[in-house]
Design goal:
Blueprint: E1 2-3, E2 7-15, E3 19-20, E4 33-39, H1 48-56, E5 61-66, E6 70-72, E7 75-77, E8 80-88, E9 92-99, H2 106-117, E10 122-129, H3 136-145, E11 152-157, E12 169-171, E13 174-176, E14 179-186, E15 190-197, E16 201-213, E17 216-220, E18 223-224, H4 225-233, E19 249-252, E20 261-263, E21 265-269, E22 274-277, E23 286-291, H5 294-311, E24 319-325, H6 326-332, H7 336-346, E25 352-358, E26 360-364, E27 370-373, E28 377-384
Parallel strand pairs: 4-5, 10-11, 24-25
Antiparallel strand pairs: 1-2, 2-3, 2-8, 4-8, 6-7, 6-25, 9-14, 10-14, 11-26, 12-13, 15-28, 16-17, 16-23, 17-18, 17-22, 19-20, 19-23, 21-22, 24-28, 26-27
Helix pairs in contact: 2-3, 5-7
Length: 385
Amino acid sequence: MSTTATFTARSASYFAERGWTSPLPHELDSDRTLVLAFGWAGLDPGSGVVRDLRAAFPSSHLLGCSTAGEIHGTRLHDDSVSLVACRFSHTRLASMSAPVRKPEDSRSAGRVIAEQLDRPELRAVFVLSDGLKVNGSALVQGLTSALPAGVVITGGLAADGSRFGRTWVLRNGQPEEGFVTAVGLYGSRVRVGHGSKGGWDVFGPERVVTRSRNNVLFELDGKPALPLYKKYLGERASELPASALLFPLSLRRTKADPDAFVRTILAVDESAQSMTFAGDIPEGHLAQLMRANFDRLIEGAAESAVMTRETASAAGPCLAVAVSCVGRRLVLGERTEEELERAAEILPRDSIQAGFYSYGEISPFASGSCDLHNQTMTLTTLTEA
């Protein structure tokens, strides 16, 4: 358990083979309680797990999504539910949802949610989205276009392992496809920290994005992008799109731009010789392939935790929501839990860490406006002064 004078957080775990490992903390249920539940993609809407959640937390704001692995403290599991409930004493909450049936709906969905949550004393928004029907960049643009400067936006895109078949978010207590959900946190006492770091190495030449449309890439340096990408993948090209998680793209506006962002492939179109990414691939940007550096990936998680302490205005025990990319898990393999351990080492003592492996991470850089990231470890810390 993690407590301050005003804030209480407790976690619980469910495993398909043995059920809940401890009773759900139903005593925390209130209209100022946030409950996050991250579970496997095949969770049945009519299952006992869903009934348990709705029965235990009828008054709480219940959010969650499907994953590519559930984070329980410093441990990673599949076919489970990682749950955390945190009750605030002085922070008000409001939760909203909007449909996103296709990528073109993404910006409007973000804007609708932002307009609904834009109330006095809004300090932060935590958002979870369907991971396959959304353009994450456009979603973030919609959110930021209608929210006041200074509101912290974090969250992630739901996942389905490396299968890319079906993702869901919890809406009205039920797992549903094709939605974006979010919770707003209001008041002067809430403390929100955020951090996002990668740790990948770039290789090969930088190439100009010469033809793209939103999150679909057609050409690099005037040549079809997919054959060029397959050339670098070699024999792993037959495993697309899953193998693309091991070789993301780094993008920056110009050679002088110090801030590069990362994009991961969600699908390939052989007939169009194109690749669909989790976020926008702007024409004119410079693109470069990336590959893993194991030690730097793990240290990136620690750097993300350090950043949360720099961006939160108060230290102390907290809820730390970890959203890490499925590509990191595939690369790190048996070393995946090392990044969870490194993050936990940096977080304040007695903090609770929970979260999931995603198809995209939503967070600001060290400062400034929010953006969609891929292949990062992103942490959001919540507590109350």
